[in-house]
Amino acid sequence: HLSIRRQRQMCIRDSYYFVGDGSPVAKMRAILESVGFLITTIIDRMNTASSPINAIKISGGLATNDALCQMIADLSSIRLVRLDEIEASALGGVWWLARQSAEEDGLKDDGLKEKNRWLGNIHRKVFLPELNTALSQRFCQWQAERAIDYCGHF
After folding, report:
1. Cα separation of 119 and 68, whole Å?
2. Where does the chain show beta strands of DSSP type E?
3. What is the largest CA-CA distance in the chain?
4. What number of H helices and E strands is found in the chain?
5. Strand, helix or coil for residue 78
6. 52 DSSP 8-state letter
7. Tens digits of pLDDT across the chain (154 residues)
8. What is the DSSP string of 101-137?
9. Is the pTM above the cut of 0.70?
């Protein structure tokens, strides 16, 4: 078995995984775009299957990348809100515990809001959708490539 580091090196070095030639920086950008394209595809499918999404809240390691966040906002045409808190799972656990504690104390909505006011102190960064024609064109090309690949498997 190859180490993850070695697999990444092979992926970046081997042009088989990329359409066309490009510098290592261009290839890393392509990887970042593919992540954004996949997330946008999921958002599009969620919008089709349910009520329209008004805003997206994002957190985690990749969410610290401003370019990725702006890309998702641009492609989905949805406002994206990123918490500065990377450990969203831990934060969710703390929020749940605070809610349970408030309910055990018999607090109603006002008391619960007071007990959870610390959540308002978490910094956020908002990414508003912008027109990015070049990115949209690459996304359309990516979708067409995936459709051909997908149809070819039957």
Report:
1. 25
2. 55-58, 79-83, 124-127
3. 63
4. 6, 3
5. coil
6. P
7. 556 565 555 555 544 556 667 788 888 888 899 899 999 999 998 888 888 888 988 888 888 899 999 999 999 999 999 877 667 667 677 777 777 776 676 655 555 555 555 555 566 899 999 999 999 999 998 888 777 655 554 4
8. HHHHTT--HHHHHHHTGGGGGS-EEEE-----HHHHH
9. no
Going 48 to 50 to 52 to 56, the CA torsion angle's sign is: negative
- Provide CB contacts within 8 A for 19, sequence distance 6+: 145
Helix (H, G, I), strand (E, B) or coil at 154: coil
Q: What DSSP state is assigned to residue 33?
A: H
The vertex-151 CA angle with 150 and 154, nearest 5°, equals 105
pLDDT recorded at residue 15: 44
For residue 4, give both structure tokens.
């993850």
Backbone phi, psi, residue 79, to 5°:
-65, 130
